[in-house]
Amino acid sequence: MPMLGTLMKTGAAVGSLWALLAAPSVHSDTLSAQESDPRVLGWMQGFPSPPELLITQPDSNYFSFPKLRWSVCHLREFLPTEEISRGVGKPVPLEYLPPARFAEMARTIDALRFTPTNSSADMSWEESLYANYTDGMLILHDGKVVYERYFGCLEPDGKHAIMSMTKSVTGLLGEILVQEGVLDDTLQVKDIIPEIGDSAFANATVRQVMDMTTGLKYSEDYSDPSADIWLYSAAASPLPKAGDYEGPNGYWEYLQQVEPEGEHGESFHYKTINSDMLGWVISRVTGKAVTELASQRLWRPMGAEQAAYQTVDGKGVPFAGGGISAGLRDLGRLGLLVLQNGQFNGKQLFPAKVVESIRAGGDQSKFSGFPTIPEGSYTSQWWVFHNDHGAFAARGVHGQTIYIDPTANMVLVRLASFPQAKNGLIDPTSLPAYQALAEFLSGKNE
């Protein structure tokens, strides 16, 4: 990754995690999940670690494979962050199956077999965990934890980068504000943030931003050295800018100079800058950073076990498009909160209409470019599958997901460090596995 090394030396790459995702292709000689386990490779072991085992910043491409298998659990050691506080109250405990039943269920699920998409050979659930470089897996059914496993760098008390699942947290907060009447999603961005100026965002509606149907000139092609993602990353970097740097400083300054491409509302285009624009809108109407709002509306009231944290730019603006790291069980709580239509521990934390709106999905006729989700749509920064179970999900590169199946009353959280960024490479194995699991838990294949 020579380009990444060059950008990091100038302080250009680390402001946005998206700039660190140009991982090498998975070839036949790529280390397996077992071989690339950071404990096996010895990354950062011993104190002080031997020089050859150090993963450092900015001199090291710390988010390239296989180093990313350690780095996904340690982003706070590379980048400045802001806390999403859980407060000082006691955590709300998750309910587990009785120990003997829990162990039996784990064995049964691990042995569950399914056929990946476009494959004639089946595989087991446990085999799929290693095939997808899983770091953590949590499954809740009927409100109880029925499966929990940790691999690689992750431990029960650890935190893991959730990448673009951050977008779904931002989108959830936005949808809460819409349903509570705090945010009018029919307004144009310029009506809320006049300083957006002549940016392409100015005449987009809040809803178009939330659903990513904006017409923006912005490329996230990491293989293109002139792609906009690199300019965005340079602007967002919290490291000192080079002496000759003349570009925007920070996420929000970058958003003020985005140019138009196409028409707003025409079609879905997955572009991270929409999430940061939504974060700015949320902050403007509430007077709070998205980290503070996530703490007040989600982490504290749902009784999280751990604080989460979110990377920030050089001005302290949280990365609303991909900067959160959090614990596996707390993400399970978040998924359960959404599955239960805003209810948790006997309390209604936000209106049920929030989840109703998300589950309804976006305009499927505008959704394209994701062949592993052929019937899908996107709304409020959530992916909706429109399958026979009504499943929907938060998704992030390298294999992060909160997969919610209302029909099976199931929440699944997977944290991973797959060598390549695109989830389309993992979906052929993952999505059939999730469906098979949902059918098993629903008693349909017993």
Task: Give the secondary structure arrangement, pairings included.
Blueprint: H1 2-9, H2 38-41, H3 68-71, E1 81-84, E2 95-96, H4 99-111, E3 113-114, E4 123-124, H5 125-131, E5 134-141, E6 144-150, E7 160-161, H6 165-179, H7 189-192, H8 206-210, H9 228-236, H10 251-255, H11 273-286, H12 290-299, E8 308-311, E9 324-326, H13 328-339, E10 343-344, E11 347-348, H14 352-360, E12 377-379, E13 382-384, E14 392-396, E15 400-405, E16 410-416, H15 427-441
Parallel strand pairs: 2-6
Antiparallel strand pairs: 1-8, 3-4, 5-6, 5-16, 7-9, 8-9, 10-11, 12-13, 13-14, 14-15, 15-16
Helix pairs in contact: 6-11, 6-14
Describe the structure.
With 446 residues, the chain is of the alpha+beta class. The chain has 15 helices and 16 strands. It folds into three domains: 2-75, no CATH class; 95-171 and 306-441, 3-Layer(aba) Sandwich (Beta-lactamase); 181-280, Methane Monooxygenase Hydroxylase, Chain G, domain 1 (Up-down Bundle). Helices cover 30% and strands 14% of the residues. Strands 2-6-5-16-15-14-13-12 form an eight-stranded mixed beta sheet, with helices on both faces. Strand 12 (377-379) and strand 13 (382-384) form a beta hairpin. Helix 6 crosses helix 14 (352-360). The longest helix is centred in the middle third of the chain and has 15 residues, at 165-179.
**Main sheet makeup:** 8 strands, mixed
Judging by the overall fold, what is the CATH architecture of the largest domain? 3-Layer(aba) Sandwich
CATH homologous superfamily descriptor of the largest domain: DD-peptidase/beta-lactamase superfamily
Q: What topology, given as strand order, has the largest sheet?
A: 2-6-5-16-15-14-13-12
Shape field = globular
SS element count, helices: 15
Structural class: alpha+beta
Number of domains: 3
Euclidean distance between termini CA atoms: 48 Å
